[in-house]
Structures are given as structure tokens and as C-alpha cells.
Design goal:
heterodimer; A: about 120 residues; mainly beta; six-stranded mixed β-sheet; 12 strands; B: about 120 residues; seven-stranded mixed β-sheet; four-stranded antiparallel β-sheet; globular
């Protein structure tokens, strides 16, 4: 079956540091890949996505590239801010069923950015 | 666009009572809605998937008589936690999709505390 593995947190960084959160996946077929962000006490917000190999998703300074050869979708940001403190979830879609696009989530990585 | 709301945002109830949580898609028709449960500092666990006008499909280990799901219209799904107990305390998140390969849009979540 499908699975997503992401690095355990918490990840603690100073403001303006470089961020990498690793995500690898196992899936049949060709899933779409997502990064979601969850701020304290809130639901999930889509941060970025990529739908095919070598695609790069980007948003708000965050980037992730769909690497089929390494089955990875690592999240990066060149300079983090305190406001980026949140929990980040890597996810993949599939299988497509009568119910539409099922999502499989990784365990989440908590990011704490200190001023 | 693509806004999903949940009501209430938080609820505290006594053990043995039933609690209903609403999930609404505000600006699109949601043919499919998903209900997730999230324990503190953990990832989202899919509880069930529902298509408008048909019975929900529950994930393994989720009691369908305990967690009643009704998807009566293309913009509303409800989750009723029946005879709630303290172990049902959790953060419940819904998402909505208009099917196929389209992405899921998440609600802000409902925090349930059972005393």
C-alpha cells in the first residue's frame, strides 16, 4: 500500500536559517505529492503540490521537487521566519477510487523558528 | 474560493451524550467529503469517506455505529459522535473534494473534549 515517511521533529531553527524537511514515499502508479501546513489550533492548508515527476511545487518561498528516482519530495526554504513555525505534513494522493482522491499523510514535522 | 467550514470549532460535552459536527463547502459542490481524526502531536487518520446521497465508507477499525456520518447534500456532511466517552476526545477535521483527481480542501477542525 501507499505510505509516506517524513523526518521526525521538532526541527528548531533560528530566523533566516535554511530549512529542509525530508519526505519519502512508497506508492503504486504515479501519485501526486503535497505539502500541507497546520498552524496551532487550525486545520490543514495546502502549501504546495506536484503532480508528475520532476515537477517543482513552490509557494511562499517554500519549494519541493517530485523526484521519482529517489521517491522523494523534500521541502525546502532558503530563509525561514518566525511565522513559519507550524507542523508540516507530506502527503500523496491515490489510489483514485469511486470516492475520489484519497490522501495518505506522513507523520508530520513540527518546525519551531526562534527570533 | 474552495472554502470549507466546520461547526462548532470546539465543544465540551459530558460522557454519554452525542455531539454533531458539521462540515460545509461554502463555494463549491463537494461530491466527496472525508473525515479525519487527529490526536495530539500526531498525523491525520482517515476515519471515513462519504459521497453525497450514499452511505459512508469507513476505514478499518472505525466503528460506524459510533461515528455516524451523513452527507445529505453537496455542501453539507455531518459527523455525529454517539454516546461520547473521554477517549473520543480529539481534533476532528473534515475535507471536501469535487471528485476525481481534484484536491481536497480542509476545514479548520473541531476540538472535542469529553468530560
Amino acid at each position: 500500500g501507499n505510505s509516506v515517511t517524513q523526518m521526525e521533529g521538532p526541527v528548531t531553527l533560528s530566523e533566516e536559517a535554511f530549512l529542509t524537511i525530508n519526505c519519502t514515499y512508497t506508492a503504486t502508479g504515479y501519485p501526486s505529492l503535497f505539502w500541507y501546513v497546520q498552524y496551532p489550533g487550525e486545520g490543514l492548508q495546502l502549501l504546495l503540490k506536484a503532480t508528475k515527476a520532476d515537477d517543482k511545487g513552490s509557494n511562499k518561498g517554500f519549494e519541493a521537487t517530485y523526484r521519482k528516482e529517489t521517491t522523494s519530495f523534500h521541502l525546502e526554504k532558503g530563509s525561514v521566519q518566525v511565522s513559519d513555525s507550524a507542523v508540516y505534513f507530506c502527503a500523496l494522493s491515490g489510489p483514485l477510487s469511486y470516492a475520489g482522491n484519497m490522501l495518505t499523510f506522513g507523520g508530520g514535522t513540527r518546525l519551531m523558528v526562534k527570533p | 474560493g474552495a472554502v470549507v467550514s466546520q461547526h462548532p470549532s470546539w465543544v465540551i460535552c459530558k460522557s454519554g451524550t452525542s455531539v454533531k459536527i458539521e462540515c460545509r463547502s461554502l463555494d463549491f459542490q463537494a461530491t466527496t467529503m472525508f473525515w479525519y481524526r487527529q490526536f495530539p502531536k500526531q498525523s491525520l487518520m482517515l476515519m471515513a469517506t462519504s459521497n453525497e446521497g450514499s452511505k459512508a465508507t469507513y476505514e478499518q477499525g472505525v466503528e460506524k455505529d459510533k461515528f455516524l456520518i451523513n452527507h445529505a447534500s453537496l455542501t453539507l456532511s455531518t459527523l455525529t459522535v454517539t454516546s461520547a466517552h473521554p477517549e473520543d476526545s480529539s481534533f476532528y477535521i473534515c475535507s471536501a473534494s469535487n471528485g476525481g483527481y481534484n484536491e481536497q480542501f480542509f476545514g479548520p477542525g473541531t476540538r472535542l473534549t469529553v468530560l
